[in-house]
């Protein structure tokens, strides 16, 4: 009972925040605004069983809007994922290049730089309408995956390295 009461209070304040921040943007009155910044509001699970599609299409490009079906949504996601793969490949190429400027295995990972990249992504996310929770998780994962990759490159370039790649 107590817990439910707290959920409702949080839900109410989240809606107020959503309304307030949506009001401050000149482009749209987005009911989902509170989901784009951290921390995410703690909301109770909705018991709704809605008639779909509900709401209005939220992707507007020029004079077209998306989407009118889940297939169209998935095609859009697949197209973006193809671009993400290409961008991650370019990023990995720079990560590999970085090893050329590191004299020893021990200086491959620079935690302060990792932190700076993560924090920068989270701070810049709102400017490109990227949910901060996604920016944080994705950049954290990219960095966590890049460190072993970088260590592997360094290892293979030196017979003196005992790190298991
Ligand atoms: C939601 O409503 C539809 C249509 O009335 C029904 O077929 C479906 O079983 C419902 N789903 C749940 C989880 O209640
Ligand atoms: C909408 O965009 C398409 C493609 O850019 C263009 O051909 C069409 O004239 C536009 N329609 C309106 C009403 O602006
Ligand atoms: C990345 O590694 C850090 C430090 O070990 C950890 O706190 C964080 O949860 C990891 N992130 C992901 C997305 O796995």
UniProtKB/TrEMBL annotation:
SMART domains: CM_2 (SM00830). InterPro entries: Chorismate_II_sf, Chorismate_mutase-related, CM_dom_sf, CM_II_prokaryot. GO terms for biological process: chorismate metabolic process; salicylic acid biosynthetic process. Residues 64-154 form the Chorismate mutase domain. One of its GO terms (molecular function) is chorismate mutase activity. Residues 1-20 form the signal peptide. Keywords: Isomerase, Signal. The keyword Signal applies. Pfam families: CM_2 (PF01817). It comes from the Eukaryota. PANTHER family: CHORISMATE MUTASE. This is Chorismate mutase. It comes from Crucibulum laeve.
């Amino acid at each position: 009972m107590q817990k439910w009461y707290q959920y409702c209070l949080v839900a109410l304040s989240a809606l107020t925040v959503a309304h307030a921040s949506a009001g401050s943007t000149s482009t749209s009155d987005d009911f989902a605004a509170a989901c784009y910044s951290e921390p995410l509001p703690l909301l109770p699970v909705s018991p709704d069983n809605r008639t779909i599609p509900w709401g209005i299409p939220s992707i507007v490009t020029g004079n077209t809007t998306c989407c009118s079906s889940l297939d169209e949504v998935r095609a859009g996601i697949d197209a973006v994922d193809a671009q993400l793969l290409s961008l991650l490949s370019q990023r990995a190429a720079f990560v590999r290049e970085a090893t050329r400027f590191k004299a020893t295995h021990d200086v491959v990972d620079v935690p302060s730089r990792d932190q700076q990249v993560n924090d920068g992504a989270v701070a810049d996310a709102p400017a490109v309408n990227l949910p901060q929770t996604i920016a944080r998780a994705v950049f954290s994962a990219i960095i966590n995956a890049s460190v072993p990759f970088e260590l592997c490159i360094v290892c293979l370039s030196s017979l003196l390295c005992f790190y298991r790649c």
